[in-house]
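Support request from a user on the community tier.

User writes: "When I paste my structure tokens into the form, the page sometimes reloads and wipes my input. The last time it worked, I copied everything first. Here is what I submitted, just in case something in the input itself triggers the reload:"
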């Protein structure tokens, strides 16, 4: 009778970090590292605040008032420095120059000059025409007063405040007040960091940027609500006899939706990155730059905050409640008792082993003496 060897079965699937991430089984301890994330977040906010205080925001002429010149039919080669120098020579300092259409055009913003059609305006047009090779009649001129910029700012702030109030009201009714407060702190964090990055890098703040700011707040809120919904679902069964704390359960819920948050971020950021780096920068579609830039920065910050700011802050608020504070104390007490019991068992086993060793040596010594007597 011949034996048949069992054929080895298929190898188990690799339980790599990527596999756990994409199956909702990642085990990143976000809550346990909340202190580290807090230090990183506060450092980032401090850097952004310093940039805002030291450098300030670079407002476009829509806010500060000024004159904009659009060159579309340039025939000579020129650089932004040459245009600035040409304008400085006629007494117009502080001009902002941006190349468009692959160097065949330019967008120039200057402080408000004299009356359109006046002598000072004619000198500016002539300087631009001499540098770019464009006909002065083909250069588009538009003047904006600072009053319009004040109206935009006032309306933007009013819209932001209304948005924040509605957010707090909705999340309080849909979830609870502490989740609303955590979402509000996350939104304020996103605003502060985005504005700080604009100040640090020197990006121009235009009406399109303001529109993008308000848009990314909605995106960040959506991501936060998705996480909070899973946290509420997973923490609902917790009771006084549960073996996990509120923070541990919230951390598990965050890991379960982590791949969804990252996937949403990637599918949102990639098209915006295409607009910014290909459309605005590569193809010269300058009108897209302000909108795409604010969306790109804000979406990246919103994804970061929904993971490492919103849920850790929510856990900190919730574990201030007596119910969850007592549960945490019970769970930690039971775990300490289990560790102490295991330590005592190991100590007793080691002591019994040590006590048995002299008896074995005495038995062996007795056998040796009996053999010598024989």
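"...and here is what came back when it finally went through:"
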């Amino acid at each position: 009778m011949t034996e048949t060897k069992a054929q080895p079965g298929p190898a188990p699937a690799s339980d790599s970090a990527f596999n756990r991430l994409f199956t909702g089984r990642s085990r990143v301890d976000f809550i346990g590292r909340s202190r580290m994330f807090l230090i990183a977040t506060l450092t980032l906010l401090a850097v952004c605040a310093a940039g805002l205080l030291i450098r300030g925001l670079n407002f476009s002429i829509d806010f500060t008032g000024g004159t904009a010149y659009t060159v579309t039919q340039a025939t000579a080669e020129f650089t932004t420095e040459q245009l600035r120098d040409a304008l400085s020579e006629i007494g117009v300092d502080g001009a902002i120059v941006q190349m468009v259409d692959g160097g065949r055009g330019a967008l120039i913003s200057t402080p408000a000059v004299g009356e359109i059609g006046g002598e000072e305006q004619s000198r500016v047009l002539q300087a631009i025409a001499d540098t770019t090779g464009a006909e002065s009649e083909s250069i588009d001129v538009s003047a904006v007063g600072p009053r319009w910029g004040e109206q935009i700012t006032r309306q933007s702030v009013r819209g932001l405040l209304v948005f924040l109030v509605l957010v707090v009201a909705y999340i309080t009714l849909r979830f609870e007040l502490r989740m609303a407060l955590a979402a509000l702190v996350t939104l304020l964090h996103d605003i502060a960091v985005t504005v700080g990055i604009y100040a640090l890098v020197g990006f121009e703040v235009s009406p399109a940027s303001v529109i993008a700011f308000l848009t990314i707040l909605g995106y960040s809120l959506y991501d936060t609500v998705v996480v909070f919904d899973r946290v509420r679902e997973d923490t609902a069964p917790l009771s006084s006899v549960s073996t996990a704390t509120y923070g541990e359960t919230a951390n598990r819920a965050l890991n379960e939706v982590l791949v969804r948050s990252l996937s949403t971020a990637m599918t949102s950021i990639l098209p915006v990155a295409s607009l910014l780096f290909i459309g605005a920068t590569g193809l010269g579609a300058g009108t897209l730059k302000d909108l795409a830039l604010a969306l790109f920065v804000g979406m990246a910050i919103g994804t970061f905050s929904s993971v490492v700011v919103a849920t850790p802050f929510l856990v900190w608020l919730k574990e201030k409640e007596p119910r969850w504070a007592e549960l945490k104390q019970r769970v930690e007490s039971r775990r300490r008792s289990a560790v102490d019991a295991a330590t005592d068992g190991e100590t007793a086993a080691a002591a019994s082993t040590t006590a048995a060793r002299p008896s074995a040596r005495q038995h062996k010594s007795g056998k040796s003496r009996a053999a010598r007597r024989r």
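Agent notes: The reload is a front-end session timeout and is unrelated to the input. The two ends are 56 Å apart (CA to CA). The CA atoms of residues 270 and 361 lie 75 Å apart. Escalated to web team.
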